[in-house]
Design goal:
Immunoglobulin-like, single chain, 4-stranded antiparallel sheet, 336 residues, mainly beta
Amino acid sequence: MRFDSENGLIFNPIILDHIGNALTGCFSPNGNLLYTMETDNLGTNLYQYDVSTYDSLIIENSKTLIFKYGPGTIGQDMQNGPDSSIYVNPDNGGLLGVINMPNRQGLDCEYKVDGLDLTNCGTSVSRFNNLIVMNRLLEISKLIIPDTMICPNNVYKINVQADGATYKWDDGSADSHREISVPGEYWLERKFDGCTQRDSFYVNISNFKPLDIVDEYEICLGDSVEFFVENTWDFLSWNDGITSFHRFFKSPGVYKLTVQSGICIDSATIWINQSEDCNESFSIYIPNVFSPNGDGVNDELQVFPMTLLLHSSGGSGIAGETWYFRPLIQLPPGMA
């Protein structure tokens, strides 16, 4: 037999003498394979035949068992779906089998006995009438809204739209979509064609801590800005390659900080600007911390150099000297 997939016609039939009691059958989309539901005294089985050779003996010898149902299964109907899968109704309530790759030979066709679950909306299917029915069956597949975790200040966007359906959410809203930003348990009922589906789900908020920092500073020549953020993230990096939570800015510039923990990411831009109020001829820098670690930055607690200019009564400079002011406190040895 030959099958014309363009118009659905079968021609040049071949008689298969040794095929079982076939209840229903369906060709693969490419027409090379035939699937049948055959029954015997032990139950109903799903078989595959290779019909590409059009030779009855070769076809019968290619018979491959795809799935063996238990006793009592009738094998109602099979049909090609709009997604190029073959849907199998073994008279198993609202559970439809799905041959996901019907153009593949043997068990590579990926048959799933519970591929389409219609049980939670009270649907029972006996025979498939046409592709319109199949499209509808696909639409009313099991309603599942997964639990999720979102980052602070983000929203969980949900869309469960189906043609002709009505909706009822836990807050009384009736839209097919919803955005959720508050943690808690939620539920939805979706109704159409006399079918009611319901699913509940949880939304949790990550404990990720967004950045909360001062993002603009002014600096004078020879000055520095100390920057420190609490280490609460899995990952931190600056746009200049620094990966420290504690650093000093010694020159003007634009610095971008990025932090991440799990799925959550935050970033901030910090501007270090050249101050317009700097008087370089009379500037005193007094650090608020000192670190005697030999790195050349604030190793001693002191007032940084300033230049003192003396002028005559006529206004001309007569002397200039750099003065250092040391603290009037006793420091431990090695920290003077």
